[in-house]
Amino acid sequence: ECKDIDNAMHIFSSITKKSNYMYTVMFKGLITNNVAEKVLDLFDEMKIEPDQFNLSTLFNACAVLNNNRAKKTGKKLLDEMPENYRNNNITSTSAINMLMKFGDVEPAQQIFRSIKVKDIISYNAMMKGYIENKTFEKALDLFEQIHLGLTNVTYTIVFNACAKLCNDRAMKIGKELLDKMPENYRNHNVISTSAIDMLMKFGDVESAERMFRSIKAKGTNIYGALMNGYN
Known about the structure:
Layout: H1 2-14, H2 20-32, H3 36-44, H4 52-65, H5 68-80, H6 89-102, H7 105-114, H8 120-132, H9 136-143, H10 152-165, H11 168-180, H12 189-202, H13 205-214, H14 220-230
Helix pairs in contact: 1-2, 2-3, 2-4, 3-4, 4-5, 4-6, 5-6, 6-7, 6-8, 7-8, 8-9, 8-10, 9-10, 10-11, 10-12, 11-12, 12-13, 12-14, 13-14
């Protein structure tokens, strides 16, 4: 695999006129192959202005790395990012994700506030970031502001936040959300695992067991969520 990466890097370096698209493809490939550090190496040699897709991928690489170099590069890119890119939800969401990974909650909030038309992916990134930074109440505050269709990711994030908080408010929100959850999501292993984990944390063993029984194809994580709850 390393040999393949080296070959790809070698071929890439031999291309004289590199396009932004080519850089994005290379960046993504390097992240996928767990060599995000090479993304920054490649970026340092970049002779053209990064476009919004380059920036999104660079932010992702910085988030994955989360070291001093990544923090420095990521923040510099963000500071220099053209204003018109800030309304690109993909770029902004990648930036939010990166900042949250860095623990920079306030700057992430500023970017989120500046997005004119927020989509569910932006909300998910913010809530996930709040959870990563252990500000679970803020995740629920934001959840209550959503007036969009929820995705499977939203359900998982909110169930996780409720499980962590485990207070009256969290129990109310978590159970209401679970009751309203579309039937097709109940066989989604990741969502079901987080829902069972939440119910067990609430001490609602009966509901957790009922949900467990209703899942057709049970993944190992689901067994784990139930077993951990008994401990």
